[in-house]
Amino acid sequence: MKFTAPLCLSFSIFFAAAQAEALTIGVVAPKDGPYGLLGQQIRAGAEASAQQKGVSLTFVDESCEAGSGVSIAEKLSAAKVDAAIGFLCSETLETAAPPLGAQTIPMLTLSVRWATIMEDALKKGWPLFRMAPSGKAESEKLVDVILTRWTGSAFALIDDGTIRGRELVDAIRAPLEERGMKPVFTDTYRPGQENQIALVRRLQKTGATHVFIGGDRSDVAIIARDAAAENIPLSLLGGDSLKAVDRPVPLADGVEAVTIPDYAKDEAALPAAQAVRQLGTEPDGYALPAFAAIEFLAAVGADSRPLAQSITNVSIDTVIGKIGFTPAHELSENPYRLLQWRNGAFQAASP
What we know:
The chain has 351 residues and is α/β, with parallel strands linked by helices. It is built from eleven helices and 14 strands.
């Protein structure tokens, strides 16, 4: 006698099978070459996360050569991925985004900040999302920090004359002045000098007690050292460029920076960091962002597919914090934080 399952039971079995089907995510990252170490971080972070979330991964090598995105898109399409993460280089996205976008395959770049590719994605409806902070995120956080912590203080804005240094200072000066906060001193200093005693003396004469420096870590370290030697108390603040090698002059304790935190040192991320280490990779650089990208997509995919229609409607707690995206496909929460250099590391700033 042939057994026929009731309609409701058949539907339940079908639904359960569909839910059990593993999400397949492409991981686009360099295997070797100058970016091989960064690619290793991405692959290890993604793999550690996928093992916990029951996600299937397809790894695709990223050469970062112009035009290479076409082949990468073909491999991802052939693997029938539900989404893809990584995309370390803009050269990859330039030619991978159009075919992947046409197939509505979501792409989460961990690195690329190129504005043009995001503008194209919005115009053409590609599901390209940026986990790297936008170009405005750093200056917006700096403005917020200065407005919150320096109100009533005499402050100065100085830069090293580079394009980045000047643009960053200009990006924070205008909104500060709109809110009634004007610097008592602005200046462009000469970078790469063995000492900056003349500069710190000029700052003292202006009465400035707080100084934002649009420059690199070595110059900020020298300014901090010379201010201390001259017994000139200055509260120094820098941007993301301060997160660099601590030499030749060590950075003084108390110097603050608006930068991306070291996620691996966050207590909530310690289990994820350990999972990455078990794969033979330190949880540095892109490892935990890749871990979080898989977490995010797994959470979205558990409730709804195709993913492209759901990504902008959710906010997910991950090992690097809450991840969600604006209608412009940018992170809805600014990842920059105010940190303070203490005991050889950037740590949460004192209240």
